[in-house]
Amino acid sequence: MPSLGYTTRGFCIRERRLVLPKGVTIPVVWSRGLPSDPTSVRVYQDSLGHWYASFVVRRDTEPAPDADPDSGLGIDWGVSTTATTTDSAYDLPYLGYRRRCAAELAKAQRKMARRHNGKRGPQTGGYVRDRRAAATLQKKTARQTRHDSRVWAKRVVDNHDLIAVEDFKPTFLAKSTMARKAADAAVGAAKRELIERGRRVGRRVVLVRPAYTTMTCSSCFARAK
């Protein structure tokens, strides 16, 4: 959640700088081009001290591509493979961004431990800097996982009219030996992104109770042990 920010309408954009009221000038690194002239901007700072500018613009809505009415996809959530589908071309593998940054994150955490003064009061500036560096690494991995989940969800929604999603609740994994890997896979975030995107473009999204799904025959619905 942003810790500091404000919204204004009296601003202008000059080259790579954002000029706010009272002559405040901010250099901007653009993540993407603006589709139209902005009407207002919100400048805010997150908990890590990073600043962002969010513009309000007008853009044309683009309808989702037409999918085959008979096209359907079933999705089963897991940990070794984040999403296993009935069509292997749409599987979402476990990408393991946090595992790739584990060595760098462990180094930052060791530096934090060395610089902790052992008291509950204010810590040294070095400890605060190392804590922010560790939090920045964790935020980076979360962003990478969220981006890949959004790209995957868009690809699934664009090509299927019916999407059957296992109504999987990953909260119990937090108390298991797979807690770290499950948190890195972000099953809940991927599921939420898929459901919201599918319903927003008018796809048929069906939530399937996971109970007995591996014991029930898909043809005759007989349940076996």
Describe this structure in words.
This protein is an alpha+beta fold and 225 residues long. The chain folds into two domains: 53 residues, no CATH class; 137 residues, no CATH class. It has five helices and ten strands. The protein has a four-stranded mixed sheet with strand order 8-7-9-10, with helices on one face. A hairpin with a 5-residue loop joins β5 and β6. α2 packs antiparallel against α3 and α3 crosses α5. The radius of gyration is 23 Å and the shape is flat. The mean pLDDT is 84.
Keywords:
three-stranded antiparallel beta sheet, 33% helix, 20% strand, four-stranded mixed beta sheet
Produce the secondary structure layout:
Blueprint (H helix, E strand, L loop, with lengths): L3 E5 L3 E3 L2 E3 L5 E3 L12 E6 L5 E6 L15 E6 L5 E3 L11 H4 L1 H14 L9 H35 L2 E5 L12 H7 L1 H14 L3 E5 L17
Helix pairs in contact: 2-3, 3-5
Question: Strand tally, please?
Answer: 10
- Order of SSEs, N→C? EEEEEEEEHHHEHHE
Largest β-sheet summary: 4 strands, mixed
Cα Rg: 23 Å
The percentage of residues in β strands lies in 15-25%
| Helical content class | 25-40%
Strand pairing plus helix content: what structural class? alpha+beta
The geometry reads as flat
- Count of distinct structural domains: 2
Q: How do you describe this structure in short?
A:
By secondary structure, this protein is an alpha+beta fold. Helix content is 33%, strand content 20%.
